[in-house]
Amino acid sequence: MSTKPLNLLTLLLLLTITYHATAHNITQILDSDPNLSLFNSYLSRTKLADDINSRTTVTVLAVTNSAMSALTSATSSLSAIKNILSLHVLLDYYDAKKLHGIKDGTVITTTLYQTTGQAHSQVGQLNITDAKGGVVKFGSAQPGAKLGPTYVKEIKQIPFTISVVEISAPIIVPELLTSGSGDVNITGVLDKAGCKTFAALITSSGVLKAYEDQMKSDKGITIFAPNDEAFKAKGVPDLSKLSNAEAVSLLQFHALASYAPIGTLKSSKGDLQTLAPAGKYGLTTSTAGDSVTLHTGVDSSRIATTLLDATPVAIYSVDSVLLPVALFGMSPSPAPAPESDTPTPAPAPTPTAETPTPAASPPAPPMESPSDAPSSDANSPEKAADEKSKNSAGDGNAPLLMVVIVSVASLVISVLH
């Protein structure tokens, strides 16, 4: 018997496993145990849940409500609690079997806190030690740090994708308890990061006060700061020609009316609410790997670096000035605007393609494109990317995988017959 059908069946099985493995929701997993409700609620409040759900390989060390009191009694700062809980998210897969079978008895593993850019030395790493006799201990990997919390039980495992286990107590690193967002100096952060032009604009326009007020609100704030080079880039409109009200709206457009760490931006769906007035100030995102791109309907900008992530404040540097539709109109298609009546293959889904002559007879589409085409084009490349990023938050690339699975299944059936 040929091995080809068997190989195809194996591929189909692997694709099916991948499809099921990519979908996980930490909130739903923890909802199954009421004793983990406090830990679960803090994952949601700090937006760590979004980051966990956006990752394909992760281990969560959960603690019960009574054990959480050791943390909540030590600090009331949501930012400090987020830092501590970030140490409980391991960027590797550890189930009971792996924890009880650690080679050489000890392993140093990376946590989510290491990805914040705030970790120094080994503060963002964790020491896991198999103390034998069924006891596994956890603690900071910093030199001289003591091991404390121990493994209790498994809660949920999706092999090699997500493992949730219970430990006896939170892993507390004292220096992380003192961090907080209480008195964030927004302009100080921007100046230090090479966003001095943006810092000067929000100060002179009075928008800085709006940022600070939003920062102190329950929802927090997210700021997208163009670097100094972005204001010198070719094609940037002359902002000096804007009225004072328009300039204020433009700067308000560079901030969300809520705290959104990178994991939240990756999984965002639909328009993000900015501080700008309601109207054509929509902002959407698309994701490619760990890179997040912002789309305005006029232009797009990649998030370059995280300048600050201190719940409930997030500040990012971006590569371009964000231009809202309300002030600058819809963008044309990403392809260069046509200069003649010659139809281009991409934006012409019309049935009149039967005439091979380069000068297409109906000139109507180019005439209407400056106003009408953007509304549909905005729903094509950018919207498609956004839909792709939406899928990655929960089901990964589920639609694509299902298409592949169905295709392979059809191929297997045809070969077997």
Automatic annotation (TrEMBL):
The keyword Acetylation does not apply. Its main location: membrane. SUPFAM superfamilies: FAS1 domain. Residues 1-23 form the signal peptide. It holds the Pfam family Fasciclin. It is found in: Cell membrane. Residues 369-381 have a biased composition (Low complexity). Residues 23-191, 182-322 form the FAS1 domain. SMART domains: FAS1 (SM00554). This is FAS1 domain-containing protein. It is a lipid-anchor; GPI-anchor. Residues 334-396 are annotated as: Disordered. It comes from the Eukaryota. Keywords: Cell membrane, Glycoprotein, GPI-anchor, Lipoprotein, Membrane, Proteoglycan, Repeat, Signal. Belongs to the fasciclin-like AGP family. Residues 359-368 have a biased composition (Pro residues). One of its GO terms (cellular component) is side of membrane. InterPro entries: FAS1_dom_sf, FAS1_domain, Plant_FLA. May be a cell surface adhesion protein.
